[in-house]
Amino acid sequence: MAILDLSKVLMYSFHYGYMKHRYVSKVRFMYTDIDSFIYEIKTDDFYSDMKDDINLYETSDCDKNNVYNLSLVNKKVIRKMKEENKGNIMTEYVGLKSKMYAYKRNNKIEKSLKGIKKQTLKNKITLGDYKVCLLNKILKYVDMNLIGSKFHSIHSIKQNKLALSYKDDKRFVNGNGITTLAHVDIGR
């Protein structure tokens, strides 16, 4: 069994064996990747819930004086789910497709956008752009300055590239234009 397969087993075990068992219909995937989940969880206090099962989590990056009084445990311990928000609640999330999402936590915006330079992402794309793309079905293009080489001659390139798209070709988008299903789930 390959490392990726083991990772999938761990992720699915956590989701179906713990999260779905604990929260039943009050939890849903917002985004998942090889090694991470973003959930919407309807509970009175998720961090209090975490304390009940702290052995499942790595909380070592949380502030020592965090408001939830979480123990700082399991630093770099494998098979533990790392609390990436460091004790801050995510208040907004927009996921367009794989590697194309943005969220707000603690009044700070975090953005992920594969194929777009970090500086371009930082300066030319906002959380609002993600929302407009999703809700109004508007594509967003950005100009990027690159350095290229052809026949050992270096030159600068100005490239206009598609940055944000509401079209997710890896998933089936439901009629509401927001929720999706894996293609394998269609017809079930």
Describe the structure using short key phrases.
about 190 residues, alpha+beta, three-stranded antiparallel beta sheet, two-stranded antiparallel sheet, 11 strands, about 25% helix, about 35% strand
* Structural shape: globular
Order of strands, main sheet, comes to 5-6-7
Average of pLDDT: 91
The main β sheet shows up as:
3 strands, antiparallel
Count every beta strand, where a strand is a DSSP E run of 2 or more residues: 11
Oligomer: single chain
Strand-pairing-aware structural class: alpha+beta
Q: What is the rounded distance between the termini?
A: 29 Å
CA-based gyration radius: 20 Å
Strand percent estimate: 35-45%
Order of helices and strands: HEEHEEEEEHHEEEE
Helix count, DSSP H or I runs of 4 or more residues? 4
Name the helicity range.
Answer: 10-25%
- Which blocks of ≥5 consecutive residues have pLDDT under 50? none
Protein name: DNA-directed DNA polymerase
Organism: Nephila pilipes (Giant wood spider)
InterPro entries: DNA/RNA_pol_sf
Describe the structure.
It is a single chain. The chain has 188 residues and is an alpha+beta fold. The chain is 24% helix and 35% strand. The strands form five sheets. A three-stranded antiparallel sheet has the order 5-6-7, covered by helices on one side. It has a two-stranded antiparallel ribbon with strand order 1-2. Strand 8 (140-150) and strand 9 form a beta hairpin. The protein is globular and about 60 Å long. It comes from Nephila pilipes (Giant wood spider). InterPro entries: DNA/RNA_pol_sf (IPR043502). This is DNA-directed DNA polymerase.
